[in-house]
Design the sequence.
């Protein structure tokens, strides 16, 4: 079984390419600290009242640091009083330049959280708390979109985050 | 660049144009026709999905419904189930029988089993049609059926029958191999059945995940035997199966590229056969330890395990790069045989006007974009930008909707005439179909991909979404235009099939190609199945045990109730 000359060149190039992909991912992970969502905590959807989800909304945690505690359910996001009237797509506000940590879980089926133009993308799996933290540096209105199919009215499930 | 084939001169290639035996014709023929029957209803939904996802269409026709499966998510469930599960599996079962029979040059062992397999798959198909039409609201759980969404029991029973049928097909292939091995103790396995066997090993291992999910979690919940679901564990079990299954669809297309296309295109055989076998073994081993790349955004899985699966995901791209070289080199030889000169001349002397060859070449061109977007998706952090956006269906319509579907269609263009005993009704129509599909799918991918980058979610009736940006609206409307082109392509495809079956008068000229001998220079170690199966199983166990244990929720005593897609009230 002899390898053709060009084949050897190609395989070396492929090895180099895949190797550099892996290196790039490692650099992003270890040096730039861009992490994927990881195991946070479990929560019983039938017992949310004794958890952090008893108190939904935008919480100031420090200088330019905010937590957004949100509940996803068929077919609205619930951000408590901070989101406006219950049952309609919530509008939440954070100051520009703040680092926002989202804590989201689901009351019923699987949902998603995606924020326009920002690197946050979470599956909201019942029984699990999804957490991700990102900076909001540009002012504007950005949609929070449910991007996992959650039943008949999934296409209308969204919210808005206003960066002031 | 001048290429030379690496096989020794003394090696004889046995290339035959076969006429089919009667029982073989019925067995293979019914599989292929049933597969294309499933694809018809499934793929027909596709263009209408693009229409209903387009705000301009919904504004113009606010009362329009989908055809047959009238409710959007019911239609999307049908599209996923019929195309991705039934079309592929039934086609693969049929073509695997054909390849095994012809390449081992002996009848299948276990014909009755093969027919039972067909019957199970067919009954599964009928059941899925029934449940989707009969109970549209509750059965609209999409082809991934993530709990807590729970469909009626028949939904799962139909899928179980499909999988059990495909397992029996696997058994027939391996029984036939065993018989051939007894008769050919020292021979090397011909490349085509080697790939079929590698494919089935990988598929069997992977399907254990979804089998456990359905039999232990989803079906009992659907029957009301258990009240609670375990969403995170279900997702892990599903993706243990869900990623390898895309390679299960792809490998038969590779079989055609490696073992049929060379002769169809005008080369004697594939450039390097031992390398091809290594590629198939790599696919078999590295497909299963990758599934967490579908769960990068999941909360209940540690990011360390996500990173480990990313490494194997990148590894499993290597056999596809090897394939690109091997097939590229083979096509270069074919193009030069046909008079192509210079560095690029051989590309222009391909049989661009032969539908069988053109379909596969178009499929390969789409696989370039499909492969590159796949590497993008696999790059864990970049995945955050595209996960669950319409970028994802844009990607896999280049791979499964492009390369795989086009190659299966290309195979059908020679196999159906052989089965029917009449020539293809119209080559022109077939060519028009191939190029409209190629163009339409490329445009589909571009527009839907851009929409995804503009924030459009996948699996969404976006024509009604109140949150679309201007860019998103623009790209969704453009996507509907590609839907029109693909609808034309579908009509051309099925008109040709029906006319070939019932109106073609010309004698059959199409023939299948089979190589009945394996390359004798293949190292013997490549054919030690026990060894490679062992490696695959151990690797799968190593990278999946901890994610499985980490995902289990049932033991917490949580109440995660069952829901139907129809509304927020738990099922009783
Ligand atoms: C005839 C051309 C086709 C068109 C126009 C088309 C269109 C579409 C569209 C627009 C979606 C996304 C819907 C959404 O996310 O809301 C979709 C999803 C999908 N398509 Fe196609 N498709 C076609 C052919 C195929 C073929 C041939 C296959 C596979 C063999 C396929 C497999 C799938 C799968 C698996 C999904 C995902 C379903 C889900 O997310 O649950 N499609 N298709
Ligand atoms: Cu949703
Ligand atoms: Cu995958």
Sequence:
């Amino acid at each position: 079984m002899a390898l053709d000359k060009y084949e050897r060149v190609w395989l070396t190039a492929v090895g180099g390419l895949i190797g550099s992909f892996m290196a790039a991912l490692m650099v992003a992970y270890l040096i730039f600290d861009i992490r994927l969502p990881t195991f946070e905590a479990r929560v019983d959807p039938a017992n949310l009242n004794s958890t952090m989800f008893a108190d939904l909304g935008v919480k100031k945690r420090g200088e330019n640091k905010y937590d957004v505690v949100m509940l996803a359910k068929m077919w609205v996001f619930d951000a408590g009083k901070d989101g406006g009237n219950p049952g309609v797509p919530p509008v939440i506000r954070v100051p520009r330049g703040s680092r926002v940590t989202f804590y989201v879980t689901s009351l019923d089926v699987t949902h998603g959280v995606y924020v326009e133009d920002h690197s946050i993308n979470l599956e909201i799996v019942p029984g699990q708390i999804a957490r991700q933290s990102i900076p909001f540096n540009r002012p504007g209105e950005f949609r929070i979109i449910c991007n996992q199919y959650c039943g008949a009215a999934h296409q209308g499930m969204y919210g808005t985050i206003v960066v002031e | 660049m001048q290429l030379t084939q690496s096989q020794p001169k003394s090696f004889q290639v046995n290339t035959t144009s076969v006429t089919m035996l009667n029982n073989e014709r019925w067995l293979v023929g019914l599989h292929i026709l049933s597969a294309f029957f499933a694809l018809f209803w499934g793929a027909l939904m596709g263009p209408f999905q693009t229409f209903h996802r387009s705000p301009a269409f919904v504004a113009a026709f606010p009362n329009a419904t989908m055809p047959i499966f009238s409710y959007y998510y019911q239609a999307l469930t049908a599209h996923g189930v019929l195309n991705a599960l039934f079309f592929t599996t039934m086609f693969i079962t049929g073509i695997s029988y054909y390849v095994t029979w012809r390449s081992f040059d002996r009848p299948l062992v276990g014909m009755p089993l093969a027919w039972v397999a067909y019957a199970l798959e067919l009954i599964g198909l009928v059941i899925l049609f029934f449940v989707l039409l009969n109970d549209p609201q509750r059965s609209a759980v999409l082809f991934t059926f993530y709990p807590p969404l729970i469909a009626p029991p028949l939904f799962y029973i139909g899928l179980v029958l499909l999988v059990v049928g495909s397992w029996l097909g696997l058994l027939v292939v391996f029984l036939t191999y065993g018989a051939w091995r007894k008769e050919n103790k020292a021979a090397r396995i011909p490349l085509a059945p080697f790939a079929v066997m590698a494919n089935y090993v990988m598929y069997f291992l992977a399907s254990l995940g979804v089998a456990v999910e359905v039999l232990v979690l989803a079906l009992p919940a659907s029957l009301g035997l258990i009240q609670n679901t375990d969403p995170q564990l279900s997702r892990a079990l599903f993706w243990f199966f869900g990623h390898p299954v895309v390679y299960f669809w792809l490998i038969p297309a590779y079989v055609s590229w490696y073992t049929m296309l060379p002769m169809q295109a005008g080369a004697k055989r594939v450039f390097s056969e031992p390398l091809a076998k290594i590629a198939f073994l790599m696919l078999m081993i590295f497909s299963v330890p990758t599934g967490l790349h579908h769960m990068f955004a999941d909360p209940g899985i540690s990011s360390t395990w996500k990173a480990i699966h990313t490494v194997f995901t990148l590894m499993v791209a290597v056999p596809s790069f090897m394939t690109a070289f091997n097939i590229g080199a083979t096509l270069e030889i074919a193009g030069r045989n046909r008079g192509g000169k210079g560095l690029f001349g051989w590309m222009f002397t391909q049989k661009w006007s032969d539908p069988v060859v053109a379909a596969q070449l178009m499929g390969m061109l789409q696989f370039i974009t499909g492969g590159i977007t796949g590497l993008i998706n696999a790059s864990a952090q970049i995945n955050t930008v595209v996960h669950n956006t319409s970028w994802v269906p844009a990607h896999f319509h280049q791979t499964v909707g492009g390369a795989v579907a086009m190659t299966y269609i290309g195979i059908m263009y020679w196999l159906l005439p052989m089965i029917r005993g009449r020539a293809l009704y119209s080559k022109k129509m077939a060519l028009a179909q191939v190029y409209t599909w190629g163009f339409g799918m490329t445009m589909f991918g571009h527009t839907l991909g851009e929409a995804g980058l503009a924030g459009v979610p996948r699996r969404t009736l976006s024509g009604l979404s109140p949150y679309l940006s201007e860019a998103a609206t623009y790209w969704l409307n453009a996507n509907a235009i590609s839907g029109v082109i693909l609808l034309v392509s579908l009509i051309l495809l099925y008109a040709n099939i029906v006319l070939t079956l019932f109106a073609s008068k010309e004698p059959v000229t199409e023939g299948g190609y089979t190589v009945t001998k394996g390359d004798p220079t293949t190292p013997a170690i490549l054919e030690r199945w026990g060894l490679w199966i062992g490696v695959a199983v151990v690797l799968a166990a190593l990278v999946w045990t901890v994610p499985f244990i980490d995902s289990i929720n049932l033991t917490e005593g949580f109440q995660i109730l069952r829901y139907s897609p129809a509304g927020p009230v738990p099922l009783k």
The longest strand of chain B covers residues 15-18. The two ends of chain B are 69 Å apart (CA to CA).
